[in-house]
Design brief:
This protein is of the alpha+beta class. It has three helices and three strands; from the N terminus they run ββαβαα. It has one domain. Helices cover 44% and strands 19% of the residues.
Length: 86
């Protein structure tokens, strides 16, 4: 699962991508691609980040939230709804 989020004048907009595959790498790539397509369709400028891998948060989003590369809106979604980090 992947998600993008950005703040607007009227609140937070977000979009998702979900993809099931036989391998984790294929599922990650499929979810990111679906998220990117949905973000483009919906006019979001925010990047897509992985939200969950199996039952844990991927290190990529944990690190991006920690060092400020991911938006506060995106990190808030991870904190509220996401699985715990590995």
């Amino acid at each position: 699962m992947a998600v993008a989020a950005e703040r607007t004048a009227t609140g937070t907009r977000r979009t998702w991508g979900v993809y099931f595959a036989l391998t984790q790498d294929a599922a990650d790539e499929g979810a990111l691609e679906e998220c990117r397509q949905n973000a483009k369709r919906d006019g979001l400028q925010a990047p897509c980040w992985l939200f969950a891998e199996t039952a844990s948060a991927p290190e990529s989003i944990v690190a991006a939230c920690r060092d400020g590369r991911a938006s506060p809106e995106r990190c808030a979604i991870q904190d509220k709804y996401g699985p715990p980090p590995r």
